[in-house]
Amino acid sequence: RRFYKHNGIDTTGIVRAIRNNLTGRGHEGASTITMQVAKNFFSNPDTPRNLWTKIKEALLALKIENAISKDKILELYLNQIYLGERAYGFAAAAKTYYDKDLKQLNLAEAALLAGLPKAPTKYNPYLHPDLAIKRQHEVLRDMHRYGMISDSAFEQALHTPLKFQSS
């Protein structure tokens, strides 16, 4: 939600993650999309995840933000993020889960895919259909709450049945 409002480091997200981790509300990171792009493109997958690694990613995120546009950063992220079932990027995920091109997806289908980055295995609709739909509904509620979709689009998407390609 705040991607276009920060410079690669989201201090609000950092404070929220620290608070939630210290109070036991959950374990979460504070990486921005730009920091995830930095990690995925410039870090070895075997690199240990620690504070020093996060600091290096944050510094690289600042450099990336100064070098390319927000839209380009988002495009890089959307085309390389892992979304389960060996699908990297949203175009691959659309083919994997629905056997469709991205442009063919309806709002309900797109919302399910949009929920996958949080935990691709946990929200995999083949493995955990109930959790996937619950997460899809969270995405739709957020889209509605933040004025991205109308009341009628929200209600229609909530009640649109999903037909997955056989896994």
Q: Keyphrases for this structure?
A:
mainly alpha; 56% helix; 167 residues
Give a written overview of the molecule.
By secondary structure, this protein is an all-alpha fold. It contains eight helices and no strands. The chain has helices spanning 11-23, 33-42, 51-67, 70-80, 90-98, 107-115, 129-145, 151-158. Helix 2 (33-42) packs across helix 3 and helix 7 packs antiparallel against helix 8 (151-158).
Q: How is the biggest beta sheet arranged?
A: none
- Strand percentage, roughly? under 5%
Derived from helix and strand composition plus strand pairing, the structural class reads mainly alpha
Radius of gyration: 17 Å
What overall geometry do the principal axes of the alpha carbons give? globular
Give the helices and strands as they follow along the chain.
Answer: HHHHHHHH
Query: Low-confidence parts, pLDDT < 50 over ≥5 residues?
Result: none
How many helices does DSSP assign? 8
Mean pLDDT: 92
Q: Terminal Cα separation, in Å?
A: 32 Å
Oligomer: single chain
Number of strands: 0
| Portion of residues within helices | 55-70%
Topology summary:
Blueprint: H1 11-23, H2 33-42, H3 51-67, H4 70-80, H5 90-98, H6 107-115, H7 129-145, H8 151-158
Helix pairs in contact: 2-3, 2-4, 5-6, 6-7, 7-8
